[in-house]
Specification:
Blueprint (H helix, E strand, L loop, with lengths): L3 E3 L2 E3 L6 E5 L6 E6 L3 H20 L2 H17 L1 H12 L3 H22 L6 E2 L6 E9 L2 E5 L7 H12 L3 E5 L6 H10 L8 E3 L4 H10 L3 E7 L2 H11 L5 E5 L4 E5 L5 H13 L9 E7 L3 H13 L19 H16 L3 E4 L16 E4 L16 E7 L2 H9 L3 E2 L1 E5 L3 H10 L4 E4 L11 E2 L1 E2 L5 E2 L1 H6 L2 E9 L13
Parallel strand pairs: 7-8, 7-10, 8-9, 10-11, 12-13, 12-18, 13-16, 15-16, 18-19
Antiparallel strand pairs: 1-2, 3-4, 5-6, 6-23, 14-15, 17-21, 20-22
Helix pairs in contact: 1-7, 2-4, 3-4, 3-6, 4-5, 9-10, 12-13
The structure holds nicotinamide-adenine-dinucleotide.
The site of nicotinamide-adenine-dinucleotide (NAD) has 32 residues, from helix 7 and helix 8.
Length: 486
C-alpha cells in the first residue's frame, strides 16, 4: 500500500481509490498505489506553486548542492531501486543497473551546468546602453513519464527543471509508479517541501487535469505520439510551454563493408534492448542485397541464442513485454507482414511454456517493404524486419521515408558513406557503429512526429528556462526618434 509524495511526505488521494501494479514477467501483484483524480491534482499543484518562490529565489549554488545530494542518495539506494525497476518494468537487471547509474549521473551533470550561467551579456546598440538576457524558470512543471525507462526519463526532466529553479509535479506511468515513489521517499526527501511532488494515476484521470491546470506553466512529457497530440491540444488554450519527446521508427542501415557477425550483435542489441521497447529501438533495417544472405544468417543465429526470462534471473538477455496490449500490437504487425508476403525467419510467437507474463520470442523477418505497418508504425517490441537495398543512396532515401525522426544508425567503416549518412538522414540522433549510446552533453530528441524538444546537454537545460532580454539605457534624455516626427 504505497502513498503518493506530497510536500516532502506521504500523501493520499481524496477518493481513496487505488490501482494495482503487476510484475510483467508473471502477473504477480507487486503493490497498490492511489488512483489520483482532478481534486488531488489541485492539491499537488498548489504544493508545488507554494514552494516555487523560495526555490526559484535560492542561489544556483544551493540548488547544485541539493542535486548532488540526490545523486548521492540514489547511489546509496541503488540496489533497492534496481530490484524494484526490474520487477515493475521487466527488463534484465543489468539494464536497470545502467538506468540508475545514468540517472544519478544526470543529477550530477545538471548540478554543475545549472550553476554555470543564467544568461548572456549582449553587444549594446549604443554606448549608453547595457543589454543582457536572463534565463528564468517557468514555475510549476508537470513531468509526465512513460513506463519503459521510468527513472532515467524522470531524471532527464527533473534534474534540469530543478537546476533552473522550477518546482515539479511528477506523474509516472500507471504501469510503473513504484520506482518513482521510492525515489521520492528515499532520494528526494532532503528537498524543501513541495519542490517535487509525485502523483499516481492514469492519463485521463490524473494526467489530463494536471496538463490543463492553470497553475502549471510547462509540461515535460515523454510518451506516445497519440498522447503527445492530446496533451498539445489540452495545453493550447493557455499556450503552455511544451516539451514533448514522442515515438519513433528508427532505421539502421548496414553498409556493404560491415562485418556480418559484428553487425548481427550491434543490430540485435539495438532492436531487442528492453525487449524492443526503447523509443530509439531499431525498428527498420536496410541490408545490402549483395550480402543479404550473410547478414541475415548471422543475425538469425545470434537472435536464436538469446535467452528469455525474468529480469532478476541470472543469464536473462530479454525480459517480458510490459503487458498484453503491447504484445498484441507486435503480434499484429508480424502477422500482417507475413500475410502480405514477408518471411518469418525465426521467433514471432509466444514461448511454449507460458509463465503468466507477456513474453514473445523475438521475430526476424525478411522480404518486407514500406507498404507494411511493421515498416511504418511504431511496433515497440521484439521484431526485426530486414529490407534489401541496391545503392547506398537508396538506403538513405528509405531511412528518410518515415513520419518520425528520432534516431538512426549506420554500421560502416567507410568515411564517405558515414558522411553521406549523417548529412543526409533526418533524425535527432545519428549513431555510427554504436547504436543507442547516449551522452550527458549530447542533446537527445526528435524531428517531425517524434517531437522537436531536446533532453540532456545545454539544450536540455534551456527547455526549462524562459529567456528575458533586458535593454537598459543609462541616459534618461528623450530620443530624437520619438514623437513628434517633424
Ligand atoms: P503513453 O503515451 O501511453 O503514456 C505516457 C505517460 O502519459 C503516462 O504517464 C500516461 O499515464 C500519461 N498519459 C496517458 N494519456 C494521457 C493524457 N490524455 N493526458 C495526460 N497524460 C497522459 O506512453 P507509454 O506507453 O507509457 O510509453 C511508450 C511510448 O513512449 C512509445 O511511443 C515510445 O516511443 C515513447 N517514448 C519516447 C521517448 C523519447 O525520448 N522520445 C522515450 C521513451 C518512450
Amino acid at each position: 500500500m504505497k502513498s503518493m509524495w506530497l510536500n516532502g511526505g506521504p500523501g493520499d488521494s481524496v477518493s481513496g481509490a487505488r490501482t494495482e501494479v503487476r510484475d510483467p514477467a508473471n502477473g504477480e501483484i507487486l503493490d497498490t498505489v492511489p488512483a489520483a483524480r482532478a481534486e488531488d491534482v489541485d492539491v499537488f499543484v498548489a504544493a508545488a506553486a507554494k514552494a516555487f518562490p523560495r526555490w526559484s529565489g535560492s542561489v544556483a549554488n544551493e540548488r547544485a548542492e541539493r542535486l548532488h545530494q540526490i545523486a548521492t542518495r540514489m547511489r546509496e539506494h541503488q540496489d533497492a531501486l534496481i530490484e524494484l525497476l526490474t520487477r515493475e518494468e521487466g527488463k534484465p537487471r543489468v539494464e536497470n543497473e545502467e538506468e540508475i547509474e545514468w540517472s544519478a549521473n544526470t543529477f550530477d551533470y545538471y548540478a554543475e551546468l545549472g550553476r554555470h550561467e543564467v544568461g548572456q551579456v549582449l553587444p549594446p546598440g549604443a554606448s549608453t546602453q547595457f543589454n543582457f538576457t536572463l534565463k528564468e524558470p517557468y514555475g510549476v512543471v508537470a513531468c509526465i513519464t512513460p513506463w519503459n525507462y521510468p527513472i532515467m526519463l524522470l531524471a532527464w526532466k527533473l534534474a534540469p527543471a530543478l537546476a533552473a529553479g522550477n518546482t515539479c509535479v511528477v506523474k509516472p506511468s500507471e504501469l510503473t509508479p513504484l520506482s518513482s515513489l521510492y525515489l521520492a521517499e528515499h532520494c528526494l526527501a532532503d528537498l524543501p517541501p513541495g519542490v517535487v511532488n509525485v502523483l499516481t494515476g492514469t492519463g485521463p484521470e490524473a494526467g489530463e487535469p494536471l496538463v490543463a491546470h492553470p497553475s502549471v506553466a510547462a509540461i515535460a512529457f515523454t510518451g506516445s505520439l497519440a498522447t503527445g497530440q492530446r496533451i498539445a491540444s489540452l495545453a493550447a488554450p493557455q499556450m503552455k510551454k511544451l516539451h514533448l519527446e514522442l515515438g519513433g521508427k528508427d532505421p539502421m542501415v548496414i553498409a556493404e563493408d560491415a562485418e556480418p557477425e559484428k553487425a548481427a550483435r550491434a543490430l540485435a542489441y539495438s532492436a531487442l534492448l528492453n525487449c524492443g521497447q526503447v523509443c530509439t529501438s531499431t525498428e527498420r533495417v536496410y541490408i545490402p542485397r549483395s550480402r543479404a544472405s550473410e547478414f541475415t544468417e548471422a543475425l538469425v543465429e545470434h537472435v536464436r541464442s538469446l535467452r528469455l526470462g525474468h529480469g532478476l534471473q541470472a543469464g536473462t538477455d530479454i525480459g517480458p513485454m510490459i503487458d498484453e496490449r503491447f504484445l498484441a500490437k507486435v503480434e499484429a504487425h508480424v502477422e500482417e507482414a507475413t500475410a502480405q508476403g514477408a518471411r518469418l525467419l525465426t521467433g514471432g510467437q509466444r514461448p511454449e511454456s507460458p509463465t503468466g507474463g507477456a513474453f514473445y520470442v523475438p521475430a526476424v523477418l525478411s522480404g518486407v517493404d514500406h507498404s507494411m505497418r511493421i515498416m511504418r508504425e511504431e511496433t515497440f517490441g521484439p521484431a526485426i524486419p530486414l529490407m534489401e537495398y541496391d545503392a547506398f543512396d537508396e538506403a538513405i532515401a528509405l531511412a528518410n521515408d518515415s513520419q518520425f525522426g528520432l534516431g538512426a544508425s549506420l554500421l560502416s567503416s567507410d568515411p564517405q558513406r558515414i558522411k553521406r549518412f549523417f548529412q543526409g538522414v533526418q533524425a535527432g540522433t545519428i549513431w555510427i557503429n554504436d547504436p543507442l549510446t547516449d551522452n550527458y552533453a549530447g542533446p537527445f530528441g526528435g524531428m517531425r512526429l517524434s517531437g522537436g524538444s531536446r533532453e540532456l546537454g545545454q539544450e536540455g537545460l534551456d527547455e526549462f528556462r524562459t529567456t528575458k532580454h533586458v535593454h537598459w539605457d543609462f541616459s534618461t534624455e528623450p530620443k530624437d526618434f520619438w514623437y513628434p516626427y517633424d
